[in-house]
Fold this protein.
Amino acid sequence: MKKHCSLPLLQVACFVLISLLLQNCGGSHNLPIQGEEEPSTSTTIEKEEGQEQGRRKSAKIEIGEEQEQRLIEQVQETSSFDIFPSEICQYIFSYLKFEDILPARAVNSDWSELITGFRQAGIVGVENKPSHIIDTRGWNKKKEINFHCDKLRVIKPETIPSFAFYCLMGSVRNLPQTFWPHLQGTNVHTILLNQNQLGPIDTVKFIKHLQRTSIHTIDLNNNRIGTKGAIELAKNLQGTNVEIVYLKGNQIEDAGVMEFARNLQSTNVHTVYLRGNKITSRTTKLLKEQYPHIKW
């Protein structure tokens, strides 16, 4: 009986990617290893004569530094990656993670264009949205990005790296309002705005910018949204992909909670956290009875 073994698709993609890298570095275009001392600037080519002679003859070709540099540039221009259709590279790139996609984009300008949408590095500004057909959802950085840290406080929509904003951010804390209108087309899936002093007006403004985005979790704890603000929030969640909402400590009262819940009926929300509001245990019980499909 014959047994057939098939490698997982991700491993196959990794093997192909590694082979591409080895081809680009190998072949007849090997360059001196950095840090290796050479006795002279000459290049030695060894040619093996017939086996009957049992010896080798070597021929030396003297080249200058400028000519050597031109040879290096020619090697870089004639990349062995060109023999592979771009569709294959795109397919492989879609399986890479954050740690792998960053060095991959630096291999050459063709890969940079496939991955980032730009042939040159350092493109900034939210107006420069990457244009490619690769599934980039796996590229997100796992670590949460906090815009209140010192390095990001000075970042503006005009100066943020375009590739990082649209492709690499997954979970974002304290995202400034100036970035809200540009969330469409990003890979952001979680936004944490707890204790941002939004109030009902800014909260609704934020929710309206979630249309046609990939965001499924929003944390709006302790923002003084109030009962009316919560109702408007629920209305504007219709048509979004949001599934989990944190609304702890927002001064929401019994009077409007049931209307808030009714408006959530037409949304994708399945979990709502309401602790720390002015809601009695009786109302909480009614919510669970009348809207059992939502976790309260």
Strands lie at 43-48, 56-61, 145-146, 171-173, 190-192, 217-219, 244-246, 271-273. DSSP finds eleven helices and eight strands in the chain. The first strand starts at residue 43 and ends at 48.
